[in-house]
TrEMBL record:
It comes from Herbiconiux moechotypicola. The keyword RNA-binding does not apply. PROSITE patterns: ABC_TRANSPORTER_2. It holds the Pfam family ABC_tran. This is ABC transporter ATP-binding protein. InterPro entries: AAA+_ATPase (IPR003593), ABC_transporter-like_ATP-bd (IPR003439), ABC_transpr_LolD-like (IPR015854), MacB-like_ATP-bd (IPR017911), P-loop_NTPase (IPR027417). The lineage of its organism: Bacteria, Bacillati, Actinomycetota, Actinomycetes, Micrococcales. Belongs to the ABC transporter superfamily. CDD domains: ABC_MJ0796_LolCDE_FtsE (cd03255).
């Protein structure tokens, strides 16, 4: 199966506003996600999960090493080339949802297709809204939604965008158990449709639904579990603290 997303020796440092040592957040991270795979990244708070996701999405440049998205080394692209490549290849479900406040739920979900100059597929849009329990709020603005509804709108948008790679930061964070289950099933189905799905999560049951779980500690990948149980994920995370 073809690899859709990879990092090789990825390092990331942030420079503070003043002089002094930079903060090293990621160290020598090497991973790959093939089409059809559903992969989780877990680890303690501050271990670098969101930063890893931002580097994999091309939103943060790597300080060292390489990220390849759909076969292209992101460091070889200029700003506009990177924006174009990202639009075609990756959708991100952000922790903060990043919905456009002046667009309705339906318009937010249709936005990636419109930005790519495609007509949104109405059947896909409606079926995603239906499955995620959003039909009744399709014409509402994000400010008129609960946190969980906003999160599900962001998930519907990423699913409908149908890019080869989908990255999700805590996609079940604001959801109750039933909605969380629906979202995980939808993400698993998305991977099943030969896309690559990588999620960052503190939800160990969600991680246990994935094909593989990568464990991050202090910016390094320290463990990899294949089809683990929730207990195995719990033990692997506990071993990092
Ligand atoms: N833009 C930035 N500038 C400086 N430091 C940053 C920046 N972004 C993240 N960091 C630092 O990098 C470290 C890792 O942060 P990150 O958000 O990636 O961790 P995380 O594992 O996702 O945490 P959580 O589970 O709490 O969301 C933290 O110490 C954080 O303060």
């Amino acid at each position: 199966m073809s690899v859709l997303l990879s990092a090789t020796g990825l390092g990331k440092e942030f420079r503070g506003p003043r002089r002094g040592a930079p903060t090293r957040v990621l160290r020598d991270v090497t991973l790959s996600v093939a089409e059809g795979e559903f992969v989780a990244v877990v680890g303690p708070s501050g271990s670098g999960k969101s930063t890893l996701l931002a580097c994999l999405a091309g939103l943060e440049p790597a300080t060292s090493g390489r990220v390849e998205l759909a076969g292209i080394d992101l460091s070889t692209l200029g700003l506009s080339g990177l924006a174009r490549h990202r639009r075609r290849t990756v959708s991100v479900i952000f922790q903060a949802y990043n919905l456009l406040p002046t667009l309705t739920v339906r318009e937010n979900v249709e936005l990636p297709a419109r930005l790519a100059h495609r007509r949104p597929d109405e059947r896909d849009v409606m079926s995603a809204l239906d499955e995620l329990g959003l039909l009744a709020c399709a014409d509402r603005l994000p400010s008129e939604l609960s946190g969980g509804q906003q999160q599900r709108t962001a998930i519907a948008r990423a699913i409908v965008a149908a890019t080869p790679v989908l990255l999700a930061d805590e996609p079940t964070g604001a959801l109750d158990q039933a909605n969380g289950r629906v979202v995980l099933e939808r993400l698993a189905a998305t991977a099943g449709a030969r896309r690559a799905v990588l999620l960052v999560t503190h939800d160990l049951d969600a991680a246990a639904r994935c094909d593989r779980v990568l464990v991050l500690r202090d910016g390094r990948l320290v463990n990899e579990l294949v089809s683990p149980t929730s207990r195995q994920v719990f033990d692997a995370v506990a071993a990092t603290t």
